[in-house]
Specification:
192 residues, globular, Lipocalin
């Protein structure tokens, strides 16, 4: 009983300390996911191609996945995600959302999507979106959530150099389970 109470007090104390400081990390077991220090949204907007990701239920069967970001007057981002279902010539699936910066770094967002890909199916989906790696030229990025349970490797072109991909994975492996990464097919695609 005393050890349980001590554990509860330790958790509460660490929560209180975390709440008092603006820290760009969140726990993942014993390792932490960290966001980049600053993002220039004017450079970040535009088209990104998904090179690899930890598969999510909402994107199973997707090929040729892209994400288009545009800056809105209120400082949020409009997101248009698109992919082809089952093969590069499959049905085009498009979902739109908004990303709201959570602090002045512009590296952490709360993202809201209304998933309505199938007739009669409509669901609001909200998630944390942290930019955890970003090349100086804004040509490649890694995005995750604070728990490290999601990961997207993004590129400005459909194909990423292997050494760039390996570097991004190596940097991410201490806080994200990169063993779950799956390559995204970007060959033979008809992009919207």
């Amino acid at each position: 009983m005393k050890s349980t109470l001590a554990l509860i007090l330790l958790v509460l104390a660490s929560t209180t300390v975390s709440a008092q400081h603006d820290v760009s990390v969140a726990p993942v077991g014993r390792v932490r996911v960290a966001s980049v220090k600053q993002v220039d949204l004017k450079q970040y907007v535009g088209r990104w191609y998904e090179v690899a990701s930890i598969p999510q239920k909402s994107t199973l069967g997707c090929h040729c996945a892209t994400a288009d970001y545009s800056l809105l007057p209120d400082g949020s981002l409009k997101i248009v995600n698109a992919c082809r279902l089952n093969n590069p010539a499959g049905e085009l699936l498009v979902t739109e959302g908004r990303a709201f910066p959570q602090d002045t770094t512009n590296a952490k967002f709360k993202v809201n999507f209304v998933l309505s890909w199938f007739p009669g199916f409509r669901r609001l989906f909200s998630s944390d979106y942290w930019i955890t790696s970003l090349s100086p030229d804004y040509g490649s990025a890694v995005v995750s959530n604070p728990k490290g349970s999601t990961m997207w490797v993004l590129s400005r072109t459909p194909k990423m150099e292997e050494k760039t991909f390996n570097r991004l994975v190596k940097v991410s492996q201490s806080s994200i389970n990169v063993g779950k990464l799956k390559y995204q097919n970007q060959r033979g695609c008809a992009y919207p």
